[in-house]
Amino acid sequence: MAGRAVWRAVGALVSRPGAAAHPRGYAKKPVIKGKGKGFVKEVQKGPEVCKDPAILTTHAMGVNIYKSGADVKLKEDSQYPDWLFQLNLGPPKSLEERSPDTPEYWKLLRKLHMWRNNRLAKTKKF
């Protein structure tokens, strides 16, 4: 009997137009003006791209975070620390390439184990 009452209530909500469209407590969607066929949306412009090879080889373009001021000039390699040139710029090392004595190895092992368990959990049936 209770099931019939629920279905009647759902049917009443669905049959009345606008009953479920504006539930109590929610604001109406704002009306957008100027939306027509002749309206052209203004395209945002990105930053200017420098194509001068002399400046590109002597300055770090796009590093300056301030609105005013010039880009940072590059220094000689001897003025930078040695570890900067030893950074791995390629793809990250796989689990087999890492040493089991490091914390990064165990962190990656845990991460891969969780990914595997999540994939297996998705395939389990109820």
UniProtKB/TrEMBL annotation:
GO molecular function: structural constituent of ribosome
Pfam families attached to this UniProt entry: Ribosomal_L37
GO annotation, cellular component aspect: mitochondrial large ribosomal subunit
Subcellular location: Mitochondrion
UniProt keyword annotations, A-Z: Mitochondrion, Ribonucleoprotein, Ribosomal protein, Transit peptide
Record-linked InterPro entries: Ribosomal_mL54
Similarity field: Belongs to the mitochondrion-specific ribosomal protein mL54 family.
Protein name: Large ribosomal subunit protein mL54
Lineage, top ranks: Eukaryota, Metazoa, Chordata, Craniata, Vertebrata
